[in-house]
Amino acid sequence: MGSKLVVSVFAKFLSQEEGAADENRLELAGTLCKPPALRSTPLGRTICDMILAVNRRYGRADYLPCIAWGSLAHRCGAMEVGDPLHLAGRLQSRDYTKEVDGQLQARTAFEVSIMSLLPPESAEGGALT
């Protein structure tokens, strides 16, 4: 029996523009819940890994891994736990291998690639769109 991944999305609203091409775009508003990890890749590109807590009803939250590159990574790396963050980005996946009990296992990670930071006043209470 193979493994199965279920990705659930709780959206405040969905929209589709007449005649528009399919687009992988989302906006998130939440709170930074772990210190950002600013680092460089082996090829010298700057990257920042973060975890964004996005509230939903009934006192629950989703914890979403986010990444930023280049000058945007530097801006995100200067943020602190508890800072509000409103961003535009896209959902992406990447495959990697992990050693478990001496054996390599193929894994898939899902994360939000940050395309731009949005003004905090444009956030609507942690909306996921």
Quick structural summary:
The chain is 6% helix and 50% strand.
- Give the spatial strand order of the biggest sheet: 1-3-4-6-5
Oligomer: single chain
Largest sheet composition: 5 strands, mixed, barrel
Helix content: under 10%
Question: Order of helices and strands, N to C?
Answer: EEEEHEE
- N/C terminus separation: 34 Å
Number of helices: 1
Low confidence ranges? 125-129
CATH architecture descriptor: Beta Barrel
Which fold name corresponds to the CATH topology?
OB fold (Dihydrolipoamide Acetyltransferase, E2P)
Chain-averaged pLDDT? 84
Describe it.
With 129 residues, the protein is mainly beta. It has a single domain (26-118), classed as Nucleic acid-binding proteins (OB fold (Dihydrolipoamide Acetyltransferase, E2P), Beta Barrel). The chain is built from one helix and six strands. Strands 1-3-4-6-5 form a five-stranded mixed beta barrel. A hairpin with a 2-residue loop joins strand 5 (84-100) and strand 6. Residues 125-129 have low confidence and may be disordered.
